[in-house]
Design brief:
The chain has about 290 residues and is α/β, with parallel strands linked by helices. The protein has two domains: about 90 residues, Chemotaxis Receptor Methyltransferase Cher, domain 1 (Orthogonal Bundle), CATH 1.10.155; about 180 residues, 3-Layer(aba) Sandwich (Rossmann fold), CATH 3.40.50. Helix content is about 40%, strand content about 20%. The protein has an eight-stranded mixed beta sheet with strand order 1-7-3-2-8-9-11-10. Strands 4-6-5 form a three-stranded antiparallel beta sheet. Strand 10 and strand 11 form a beta hairpin. The chain is globular.
Length: about 290
């Protein structure tokens, strides 16, 4: 089974998984705070000082709505009361962290983009570097890195390639390492690939063991942990839309720094990078960006 490596920070009750050290903003469109605003901002500060998780890196309205629903679910009238419960319950903290992360993934999501990766960019990258280093960032339950592994295997390059797959949420990493998926996750897998690389049928499909063993899963915090590299290919799709513009800008810069010159960043279908040159990137195709050689 693929190995799951913890982040460099202790995961005791999962509370030490950090995101950033920024300060929290006032609610959008308001110069004054209400009592409810103050309650939420105190919660943001308590979370940041006690766990180093910075909710202000996420879009405030979405995050606040998600957490309000969560505290109401458990019957807490205020964020202050919810924090007191969180700080004393590992189970509640794990649920809180799970709600913060977005775990929607499929094999071959947006198939035409994967076709471009397979037909154009993988051959180009392999021509320059026969041993590819690849990173699937915020990989969720693993469909993305497994899709990449299948494409590399079809290109005859998997055995000499490295695929790192990371996520903040250890629960989804455990699911990814198991490599078993419901039918809806494989609906876009080409039939030839489904027959060749998956076992099972009907409601459950498992990726082949030899493919699973090529992925190195690791807990990693995009907004705080070191990126490593240099990588030939970084895939980070359908994650950036949940972050603030400032957080996204910092991440794009760090992704570029983690790529070798000529390396490719593959982003999601709603995540076009405006002014990629500001980050040392250049547009290579729709949703593909290349680190500049200069």
């Amino acid at each position: 089974m693929p190995r799951i490596t913890p982040s460099g920070k202790s995961a005791c009750s999962s509370a030490r998984r950090s995101l950033s050290t920024m300060t929290g903003p006032l609610p959008a469109g308001s110069d004054q705070t209400t009592a409810e605003d103050e309650d939420f901002l105190r919660f943001v500060g308590l979370i940041r000082s006690s766990t180093r998780i910075d909710l202000s890196q996420y879009k405030e309205a979405q995050m606040r709505r998600r957490l309000t629903t969560l505290r109401h679910k458990h019957g807490y009238a205020t964020f202050e009361a919810y924090w007191k419960a969180l700080s004393g319950s590992g189970a509640l903290m794990d649920e809180f962290l799970d709600r913060m992360t977005i775990n929607v993934s499929e094999f071959w999501r947006n198939p035409s983009r994967w076709d471009v990766l397979a037909s154009r960019f993988l051959p180009e990258l392999l021509a320059e570097s026969p041993r590819l280093r690849c990173w699937s960032a915020a990989c969720s339950t693993g469909e993305e890195p497994y899709t990449l592994a299948v494409l590399l295997n079809e290109a005859g390059a998997l055995s000499r390639s490295q695929i790192d797959a990371t996520d903040l949420d250890r629960t989804v990493l455990a699911k990814a390492a198991q490599g078993t998926y419901p039918a809806r996750s494989v609906k876009d897998v080409p039939k030839k690939m489904l027959d060749s690389y998956f076992e099972g049928s009907g409601d459950s499909y498992a990726i082949r063991k030899d493919i699973r063993e090529k992925i190195s899963f690791r807990q990693h915090n995009l907004l705080d942990d070191a990126f490593g590299g240099p990588y030939d290919l970084i895939i980070c799709r359908n994650v950036m839309i949940y972050f603030t513009e400032e957080a996204k800008s910092g991440l794009y810069r760090r992704f570029a720094e983690a790529l070798r010159p000529g390396g490719i960043l593959f982003v999601g279908s709603t995540e076009q990078i405006f002014s990629p040159g500001d980050y040392g990137l250049e547009s290579a195709d729709t949703f593909f960006y290349r680190r500049s050689y200069a």
